[in-house]
Amino acid sequence: MHVFVTGASGWIGSATVEHLRASGHQVTGLVRTDRAAETLGAVGAGALRGDLDDLDSLRSGATNADAVIHLANKHDWANPAESNRAERAAVETMCDVLAGSDRPFLVAAGVAGLAMGRPSTENDVSPAIGPDSPRGGTENLAFDYAEKGVKAIALRFSPTVHGDGDHGFISYLVGVARAKGVSAYVGDGSTRWAAVHRTDAAAMIRLGLEHAPSGARLHAVAEEGVPSREIAEAIGRGLDLPVTSVAADRAVDHFGFIGQFFAMDLSSSSVITRNLLDWTPTGPTLLDDLASGSYFRV
Length: 298
Hints:
- This protein is 40% helix and 20% strand.
- By secondary structure, it is α/β, with parallel strands linked by helices.
């Protein structure tokens, strides 16, 4: 299968490209730089120059592919409205191309905000609807295209997709702890984050492409929930810093934007995904990765 991948040189995307190539798929990745194109070339993948604002490139990539895996996002935390706008325009552009073809369109989403007071499941419908919602409401937008002949599949990622080289939320928490001189958690530290290793997430994406039906919601979750206090304690050990609690009303002051997420319980289940795809995560746990020291290299 010829697969067009946006975000192909990113944290999850680069691992996904490697898994797809190892399984015999032809891959073309959307890239912004020569260096990214060279990285894809090293694993036998092609490159298409462009970005999320270059709708002509997105149109071309989708037109010439048997399937699309959309992983790119601007992640502009200072201007989320711009990220949401670009995301929605990109998904509309590619899905318009795929309409009527029954070709797969796999779109990145998250498990955050799907349920309150319990782990979210694949049966939970995303509450993000419309252009002003997180990620521009593109999970539901993609499912709207299922009625127009697109095989739409949601890829819902854990709040932490961890591993050596991660520059995401856990790396950010490490940076806050280093800057503040203390590793903190919010309240009593009982809130939990679902977690998955990068390679396990990539394996799930490849299986989803090959086996998931239209309308499937797939959860890239290896650990249902790692308590925030345990995350803070592991960071404290890694940096040799004291560990303390921060009151919920001070979370954003202490952590910055990530404080609102670290104060939330973002636990999630992947039982349905595992059974549907025969997917069994085998990578290191989040605490294993923190214990390895990779997050603390300067």
